Amino acid sequence: MTNIHNSKEYHTLKRAALYIRVSTEEQAIHGYSLEAQQEALTKYAKQHNLFIVDYYIDQGKSARKKFQNRKEFMRMIRDVEADKIDLILFIKLDRWFRSVKDYYKIQEILEAHHVDWKTTEEHYDTTTTNGRLYINIRLSVAQDESDRDSDRIKFVFQSKVARGETIVGPQSLPLGLTIQDKHVVPEPKTADIVRDLFTHYYLHRNKNLTTRYAFKTYGITIYHYVLTKMLSNRLYIGEYRENSNYCEPIIEQTLFDQIQAIKNSNIRKTPANRTYIFSSMIVCAECKHKMAGRFSFFKGHEYYLYRCNHSVNLCTCSHRKTINEKKIESWLLENIETEINNYMIEYRMQMEKQKKPSIDRAKIKKKLSKLKDLYI
Description:
alpha/beta, three-stranded antiparallel sheet, 14 helices
């Protein structure tokens, strides 16, 4: 078996990280959808014979926020520091930063690890003084525009909330609420269901029982984390962004406060900042839903496991076994070389299938004939 890391093809391919970012308003206004960016960057990488290390996609993240809050961006920087990347690709400079200060913080890390960056739809030159000045000017202008837009949007939203008008679409509202004449109102068909679920949780004080009850009684699949958000959502008591009379409540204040007290008393401590590295990557063999990570402590040992929540919470799946994270890691380490080899074979086959430029032999003969006449 050929070792891909020692092969000539691996070392000649430049390792590229494809960074994609879009905020909700940008996707709607400018058409910078995740799919469009991913398609454009992938096409560019293939055309320039780049090895795609990974896609780093920050959805709904604004460039105005601290870059530390961009989860995928920080994962990419960790890969840079681990020397896994040679080049970072993104479509435009504003996908990267809108702050001169943040730009230079990250630029120091990239230069320390000999990592370049490139925009596919714009041209920048960081090797000259004028080129660096141009980048500073573009970032300063982008930051000023972003700050002005942010102030205008905040003012408009504050005015709408004060008048009780909605600033989100119906799909962003929780179960039991809808929009009518630009105002949030109880949804007749589902408001009673929400009241029933709140009451059920108050009586039984168990989220798993409540999610099962919702599925068996109403045929509604509510995941554990969704129920947690529902029980804490102050829209149900008519409050939103410091406006206590924003909309008509569907849950009484007393019941809501009692449920918050129950939730706080049931909080279980888990390891801080624990990351389940295979989260949303493992699929249940029975129902094909993604398996969720969980923590277990037994006889002085910590165990990190993955299980099917459709089996545990809803009882709709027969797969009740858990998978140990260490076993997954062991299998991956034993088979990673084979998987990379398979990827490289597929990649080379795709490159070979690309249409080669046709040769116009008649044109070449005509040109040679003219050169011969000139020589004579």
